Amino acid sequence: MSDVVAEKAAPPKIPSPARETGRGRWVRRLAWVALLLVLAALPLYLEAAWLKAGQYVMIGGVGAIGLTMLVGQAGQLSLAHAFFLLVGATGYTVLSGPADDERVFGLGLDPGLALVGAVLTAALLGLAFAPVAGRLRGIYLGVASLSLVFLGLYLGQSAEALTGGTSTGRTPAAFELFGFPFSNGGPEIELLGVPFRQAERTWYLFLVLTAVAFLLARGAVRGRVGRSWRAVRDNEAAATAMGVDVTRAKAGAFAVSSAYAGLAGVMTALWFDILKPDESEYGTYGINVSIAFLAMVIIGGLGSIPGALVGALIVHGLPQALALYSADLGLFGETGGSALTPALISSFVYGAAIVLVVLFEPGGLAAIGRRITSRGLSRKPPEEDPS
Amino acid sequence: MSLAPLRVENVTLTFGGIRALDDVSFTVAPGTVHALIGPNGAGKSSCFNVISGVYRATSGRVLFGDTELTRLRAHKLAKIGVGRAFQNTALSTRSTVLDNVMLGRHVLTRGGFLTDGLRLTAREERRHLARAAEICAFLGIGDVLHVPVAALPYGAAKRVDIARALAVEPTLLLLDEPAAGMNAAETAEMAATIGDLRAALGISVLLVEHDMSLVMGIADRVTVLDFGKRIADGSPAEVRSDPDVIRAYLGAEEPA
Amino acid sequence: MNTFLQLVVNGLGKGAVFALLALGFVVIFKATEVVNFAHGSLVLFGGYLVVVTRESLGWVGASLVGILSAALLALAVERLLLARARSADANSLALLTIGLDVIITEEVVRRLGVTLPFLGEAWDAQPIQIGGITLFRTHLVALAVSAVLITAFFLAFRYSDWGVAMRAQAENREAAALMGIRSSRVTATAWLVAGALAGVAVLFIATQDFSGAGLSRGTHSIALAAFPAAILGGLDSTAGAVVGGLVVGLAEALSAQYISFDFSKSAVFLVMLVVLALRPSGLFGTRESTRV
């Protein structure tokens, strides 16, 4: 029956359903490819410390992409992101941990498998929270989700067999894929005189993970799933009338977002090379982390996938860059309680950025970016939502 | 394509102690435009919401062919060919026209996070985009496909809402006050569009309407509600001369 | 039995402080529909001003300065930022307050450095023995002060011009405006009151008795319990805020004793989750907050 209109109505002139002009699309694609090439070449030029900083940005990017889908696309405010990071980090460490350790519990799985398992665990826990989340809206949901962070704090402290406890923590297994270790071990590799050791190898691992996370999210957001999320966000009655099962759509968004946070958690454990649960609600998996991720997605523009990456660059990149520059330039020489630290300056910057974005550009950096590129590249209207 | 009748059978709806609908029955014959009218507070919207699954009837049932709508969860209606447009154009205003209309294809397509993410659905998606564009063109909004809904005038947004309902490929289209908030010229255009729809698609249309000029011009049959009760049911001419209807409307407003 | 009684009184004492915070929170929400995530930083700011002025003004004077400055900061936030962002919806403004909270908290914590001053010297660490049970003076004073302030608030809310205007505005903003109620004055007053209540609360929180820790980032964490208190009472219910505060105080005190100290922070949130699972708008709430 899909061609009834075509048969009976006068054949209408249909403008091409292409989203943008051909030239604009190609320029855009080329820009992405160029960016990827530059990122792939960086280990040849950067010191390990800078690579490490870049990896931290990628952790932020993966987590922020997950959160922006949940908050920006599906309209579900969540402050639980840090909890799912903890789940991912713990999941990986437990699944890949040696099975014969007396102090802590481990399953001795292949690290690649453990990564997938950790991501799935986070997704399932996200799904488990969905029945609660489905009943709540807006701020109620935000504060309710905060309880997961507190629960994580408690479990991290008390489930020492899994987490290793707050005082010592436990070391995650080094990542390896098909026997190739992403550490200093294994075969010696050298390219153009640059030895590829842990920092370089992990850089590529993280780059691939981030790229996959990005492409999946972008495809999903532009497709059927993304449409159902936006429909749920904007009008549940209309979404229902169009056949969207609202409860399921919300649960799906929670699961996907949690899976992303779980992956970011795995990356966090690998990056620190230790899993160490927090002693208070501020820490590696604390409220401050949930807020930092929220800052990334607000600054980047709620719902925008590329925006999430830019937000991560600011929120996670700035403290790292400042710390490295300070070493080079001798800044932050003052120590003690009242010293201005890179982390502190970064907090000021992203705190202020949130305020400024809400006041002056609610669409975040993504909206600014769209305005610039729509002027330069194509005639695509500026305020388009799906990204 | 065989069309099924929509039968509303003895539907009663109570909120607390108030009877919003009292034993209401009528049938939308296949392929007709059926109007549900009545003065303010007569229960039109309540009836509409029972049919579309937003409210649950206290007693009675609604049948679409052999399917009992009153037993279905609201999101299942689209799947069996019931499309719905809203009075207040419940659209995603920041999204483009095409994106909104594509939502109507939800039940006709498949795909979850991974399949969409891996672009396994791209080919199917293109086919449906073309169809959505076609429907938009039919409704005269083909040249604004990539414009965000927020940038459209009200009349055009109203059409986007109807386009989205049509994108479900319904055999029964539910229209909630399609002319609400429109001036006389826009109302006339909307009436023509609804007429075109029926002619081109051969589907059944049930519309709740306040504007009598729209109803009398295009409806094949009219059901009149007052205080939750059905007070008349017949052709526009019959209903117009029905003394009960005249009395009901004189209390509220003049039939046009 | 004695332990239990002691726990209940101490829990209520803590709960009274949470009630002050939750009440401010709810007042702001009722007036503006904005959820003020910066509430914890108002607490810190008030406390910090006490620390700074205590030497020259003495404790009483410094406390008054602290309360006043928390109130003025809240007023400034409303006048200088929120009132100028009228185009943004309430949920965006809530996000804005998250940004503010980060800035204010980090700066106060930085200025405090390694000193973690206690603030409640008029009542801190002077336990009272009554019939074999030990009661903390801080909690008793907190109960009394909160009772007075909350009663005064409800009287003002019921009878004063501000209270009437405030309730009218919470009911229907447009109608209130048509009746000649100046929305900006009502809103500004709401923030002022909420800030002052936060300034009072910190005098009890940064004590040996209450938290065992002086003014620090930890104070901000403790103030966070005002969220579950306000939410479980119902965001738009002033009575709910008071009940919610007391529930949170009791839940924390009892779970710390009978389950574990580490668990007590989670317990508060779990109680809230249970309440929300049964009543999605809280115990006394009447409307659900809108989506982000």
TrEMBL record, chain A:
Gene Ontology cellular component terms for the protein in this record: plasma membrane
Record key words, sorted: Cell membrane, Membrane, Transmembrane, Transmembrane helix
GO molecular function: branched-chain amino acid transmembrane transporter activity
Keyword Kinase: no
Bilayer topology term: Multi-pass membrane protein
InterPro entries (UniProt xref): ABC_transp_permease, LivM-like
Start and end residues of each stretch annotated as Disordered: 1-20
Subcellular compartments: Cell membrane
Main location: membrane
Keyword Metal-binding: no
Transmembrane stretches, start-end: 30-50, 56-72, 79-99, 111-132, 139-156, 203-221, 251-272, 284-302, 309-327, 347-369
Name of this chain's protein: Amino acid/amide ABC transporter membrane protein 2, HAAT family
Organism per entry: Actinokineospora iranica
From TrEMBL, chain B:
PROSITE patterns: ABC_TRANSPORTER_2
InterPro entries: AAA+_ATPase, ABC_AA/LPS_Transport, ABC_transporter-like_ATP-bd, BCA_ABC_TP_C, P-loop_NTPase
Superkingdom: Bacteria
ABC transporter domain mapped to chain residues: 6-252
Gene3D superfamilies in the record: P-loop containing nucleotide triphosphate hydrolases
Keyword ATP-binding: yes
Keyword field: ATP-binding, Nucleotide-binding, Transport
GO cellular component, one term: plasma membrane
GO molecular function, one term: ATP hydrolysis activity
SUPFAM superfamilies attached to this UniProt entry: P-loop containing nucleoside triphosphate hydrolases (SSF52540)
Pfam families, A to Z: ABC_tran, BCA_ABC_TP_C
Official protein name in the record: Branched-chain amino acid transport system ATP-binding protein
Organism: Actinokineospora iranica
TrEMBL record, chain C:
Gene Ontology CC, one term: plasma membrane
Alphabetic keyword roster: Amino-acid transport, Cell membrane, Membrane, Transmembrane, Transmembrane helix, Transport
GO biological process, any: amino acid transport
GO molecular function terms attached to this record: transmembrane transporter activity
Transmembrane among keywords: yes
Membrane topology: Multi-pass membrane protein
CDD domains: TM_PBP1_LivH_like
Keyword Iron tagged: no
UniProt xrefs under Pfam families: BPD_transp_2
InterPro entries, per database record: ABC_transp_permease (IPR001851), BCAA_transport_permease (IPR052157)
Annotated localization: Cell membrane
Transmembrane parts of this sequence: 12-29, 34-51, 57-77, 140-159, 188-210, 222-247, 267-286
Membership in a protein family: Belongs to the binding-protein-dependent transport system permease family. LivHM subfamily.
PANTHER family tied to this protein: ABC TRANSPORTER PERMEASE PROTEIN, BRANCHED-CHAIN AMINO ACID TRANSPORT SYSTEM PERMEASE PROTEIN LIVH
Protein name (record): Branched-chain amino acid transport system permease protein
Organism, scientific name: Actinokineospora iranica
